[in-house]
Amino acid sequence: TSVLLKRGLSATIEELLMSAEYILAGGNTQVMLCERGIRTFETATRNTTDINAIPVLKNLTHLPVILDPSHSTGHADYVAAIARAGIAAGADGLIVEVHPDPAHAVSDGKQSLKPEKFAAMVKQVGQIAQIMGRRLASVQGEFTSIKQGWS
Predict the structure, then answer these.
(1) I want to staple 117 with a disulfide (CB 3.0 to 4.6 A). Which of 16, 73, 113, 141 is the partner?
(2) For the residues of 70-135, what is the DSSP string, one character each?
(3) What is residue 117's predicted lDDT score, i.e. its pLDDT?
(4) CATH superfamily of 3-147
């Protein structure tokens, strides 16, 4: 079973890695790390996206690093910009909230992209990935992650 280990709001990078090590030591090798923002004094966004954590984690571990720009910002207007920054920083993938009518979403509507905004973001992220020598992976025509050096 795959595990997406989300960094806690107050967790250090070392604490995230030690949590991953605990799971790995238990025999599960399918662990991905997720950066979704840390708690700071800033109140303009829900959390503060720790873009620095992405290259640091990529340097310290072999585990995939996923960025959640939806939860880290809490505002749909900022999701695409943070997604682009995350891919440029080396994130292996993104988790993005999408809803056809965010105002009526049961949860997380404020941070959800409409499908057309998501499509535009995917195009931009794909261009950045290409510049970085990577590409978007496609499963049945839907973009799902960034892959580097995989066919």
Answers:
(1) 113
(2) HHHH--HHHHHHHHHHHHHHT-SEE---B-S-GGG-SS-GGGPBPHHHHHHHHHHHHHHHHHTT-E
(3) 96
(4) Aldolase class I (3.20.20.70)
